[in-house]
Write a structure and sequence with these properties.
With 375 residues, the chain is an alpha/beta fold. Helices cover 35% and strands 16% of the residues.
Length: 375
């Protein structure tokens, strides 16, 4: 172990006693590697198996907890017990090198393009005819249907059931996807959540849905005290020129979630790991870390391409997430541990705009990864 990367390669223990051997993680990405029905096949096993030693914590791409929340083709499915056998195979290959494997639990909300195309509707806190600017992909916009109280409770239960399936499949934990304009974020946002009942209105009421999801997941997995539970969030939101919530709002949310009890808080940004919100002297990661304190570990992502980047990013969080670089270099952390950081692969071809990258990936995932192997 080289001294300059000692901290990066030192194991980290979560508050529940579970630990990871490196302070890096494979960030959850849209990879289109599941089969058409969302089950696990050879492509998913190869993709994640190839990256079983890319980081100390390995997080799958989003796994839909209900079909009505499915966002894209070939998304991992965890909405039914019939998927457990495939997920068991996936957990085994991901953990082959002694790293911890986590499933990201997801509901696409108003961004659930697959659900719209197949069912003719999507689910959201409010049935508002949002302008195109309020969608990640404006060409796929549609007016969502407002969730009923009954349906809200069903979805909370579905997150809990997904967590239980992940546990039964042999995964070490789950990450709750509360970022990137998906359902949990839509409940937290004052722009997308126009409800006047207990699920919307004040900041405290808009926090209720994500907090209840966390509580339900904890309850469903309580037989495994060392089961990792993470929460991913986007720290700010402005849609169609309207502020959905601020950094200060997010800090109140992560404060509440840390009080409920999670293993880690994962900050989702697309700028750079040391980026700062406007008007703040500290980075997004530093602000979250300071707010959470010793109640949970923190993860930061974006702009980590080299061993030195990863080392520097540790000033902003406890764990460093690898996205595009994990695609290009499946042995990123392993090479650092072996004292070969200079051998980490880089490719300008895949250091493009993220949306462009995943658009190319979505056309033919098998061919994409075949070409990637040649880099």
């Amino acid at each position: 172990m080289t001294d300059q990367y000692k901290k990066l390669l030192t194991s980290l223990k979560f508050n529940n006693g579970q630990s990871i051997k490196y302070r890096t993680c494979l960030t959850p990405m849209v990879t289109y590697v599941a089969e058409k029905d969302g089950s696990i096949g050879d492509l998913a096993l190869k993709f994640y198996g190839d990256r079983s030693d890319v980081a100390g914590l390995l997080i799958t791409g989003a796994a839909n907890v209900v079909q009505a929340g499915k966002a894209y083709e070939r998304q991992i499915n965890i909405s039914d017990d019939k998927y457990i056998s495939g997920l068991t195979r996936l957990a085994k290959v991901m953990k082959a090198d002694g790293n911890k494997a986590v499933v990201q639990l997801h509901h696409g909300g108003k961004e659930a393009m697959w659900a719209q195309e197949n069912f003719g509707h999507v689910e959201s806190p409010s049935g508002i005819d949002f302008p195109a600017e309020a969608y990640t992909f404006p060409s796929d916009m549609y007016q969502p249907e407002e969730l009923t109280e009954t349906r809200i409770l069903e979805i909370i239960a579905a997150f809990a059931a997904g967590a239980k399936r992940a546990m039964e499949a042999g995964f070490d934990g789950v990450e709750i996807h509360g970022a990137n304009q998906y359902l949990l974020q839509s409940f937290f946002s004052a722009y997308t959540n126009r409800r006047t009942d207990k699920w919307g209105g004040s900041l405290e009421k808009r926090m209720r849905f994500p907090i209840e999801v966390v509580k339900a997941v904890k309850e469903a997995t309580k037989e495994r005290p060392d089961f990792i539970i993470g929460y991913r969030f986007s720290p700010e939101e402005t849609l169609a020129g309207k502020v959905g919530y601020t950094m200060e709002d997010s800090l109140q949310l992560v404060d509440k979630i840390a009080d409920v009890g999670v293993s880690y808080i994962h900050t989702s940004i697309f700028s750079h790991f040391d980026a700062k919100p406007k008007g703040y002297s500290q980075s997004f990661g530093e602000l979250v870390k300071n707010k959470v304190g010793d109640r949970a570990k923190t993860i930061i992502v974006s702009g980590v391409h080299t061993a030195d980047d990863a080392k520097e990013a540790l000033d902003h969080a406890d764990i460093i997430a690898l996205g595009r670089e994990a695609l290009v270099e499946p042995q990123f952390t392993k090479k650092i541990a072996e004292g070969k950081p200079e051998e980490i692969k880089r490719s300008a071809k895949y250091e493009q705009d993220t949306n462009l990258l995943f658009t190319e990936l979505g056309k033919d995932p098998a061919k994409f990864f075949e070409e990637l192997d040649k880099v």
